[in-house]
């Protein structure tokens, strides 16, 4: 089973990213998926968590993801011990930041990938919405979901008026991370 934990702030779309990943894998790649949020105080800007599980067989565990293969951070100000806690050795931490990966001290044997998803989103969407480029960064880092599956999920899940820009944003972020690997 592949487990992903998403760290974001209310309004950034962490749960939307988890759900898009789930849609892409379940509908377009025919695997079993869970995608669910964990909210504290439900207000814009408050820290939120979202989770995605992917497996070839039915998933019966309904608890929050405690140990994970991937951690995606939509806002680098959230980085801390709670972000890296439970990240498996050999896992990947993907952070939206202007900083280099070396700026994030490691407490385990995992890879750190950084991307300035905010700049990409501002350039393409005109708004600092980082969920789609962070999903792209995860897809590029993990090779657990195809580009075509995610682009189809964007068409399935997002409003038609924002699909094309989000697909362009996804491809730009995906290529940015693939070029850095």
Total of helices: 6
Low-confidence stretches: none
Named CATH topology = Pyruvate-ferredoxin Oxidoreductase, domain 3
Q: From the 3D coordinates, which CATH architecture would you assign?
A: 3-Layer(aba) Sandwich
- Principal-axis shape: globular
In N-to-C order, the SSE pattern is EHEEEHEEHHHH
- Beta percentage is 15-25%
Largest sheet: 6 strands, mixed
| CA(first)-CA(last) distance | 24 Å
Name the average pLDDT.
92
Strand order of the largest sheet: 2-3-1-4-5-6
What is the helix fraction of residues, given as a range? 25-40%
Organism: Megasphaera hexanoica
InterPro entries: Oxidoreductase_gamma_subunit, PorC_KorC, Pyrv/ketoisovalerate_OxRed_cat, Pyrv_flavodox_OxRed_cen
Protein name: 2-oxoacid:acceptor oxidoreductase family protein
Keywords: Oxidoreductase
Please tell me about this protein's structure.
The model has no long low-confidence stretch (mean pLDDT 92). The chain has one domain (2-180): Pyruvate-ferredoxin Oxidoreductase, domain 3 (3-Layer(aba) Sandwich), CATH 3.40.920.10. The protein has a six-stranded mixed beta sheet, covered by helices on one side. It is α/β, with parallel strands linked by helices. It has helices at 14-29, 81-84, 117-124, 131-142, 147-157, 160-180; strands spanning 2-9, 32-38, 47-55, 68-73, 87-96, 111-115. The protein is built from six helices and six strands, in the order βαβββαββαααα. This is 2-oxoacid:acceptor oxidoreductase family protein. Residues 10-174 form the Pyruvate/ketoisovalerate oxidoreductase catalytic domain. InterPro entries: Oxidoreductase_gamma_subunit, PorC_KorC, Pyrv/ketoisovalerate_OxRed_cat, Pyrv_flavodox_OxRed_cen. Keywords: Oxidoreductase.
């Amino acid at each position: 089973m592949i487990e992903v934990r998403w760290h974001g702030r209310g309004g950034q779309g962490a749960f939307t990213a988890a759900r898009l990943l789930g849609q892409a894998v379940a509908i377009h790649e025919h695997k079993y998926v869970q995608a669910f949020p964990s909210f504290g105080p439900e207000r814009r800007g408050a820290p939120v968590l979202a989770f995605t599980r992917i497996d070839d067989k039915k998933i019966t565990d309904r608890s929050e993801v405690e140990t994970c293969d991937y951690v995606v951070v939509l806002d680098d100000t959230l980085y801390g011990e709670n972000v890296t806690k439970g990240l498996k050795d050999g896992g990947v931490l993907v952070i939206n930041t202007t900083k280099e990966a070396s700026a994030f001290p490691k407490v385990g044997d995992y890879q750190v990938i950084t991307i300035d998803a905010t700049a990409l989103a501002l350039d393409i969407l005109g708004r600092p919405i980082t969920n789609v480029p962070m999903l792209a960064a995860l897809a590029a880092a993990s090779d657990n979901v195809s580009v075509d599956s995610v682009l189809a999920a964007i068409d399935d899940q997002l409003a038609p008026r924002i699909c094309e820009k989000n697909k362009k944003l996804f491809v730009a972020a995906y290529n940015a991370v693939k070029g850095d690997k």
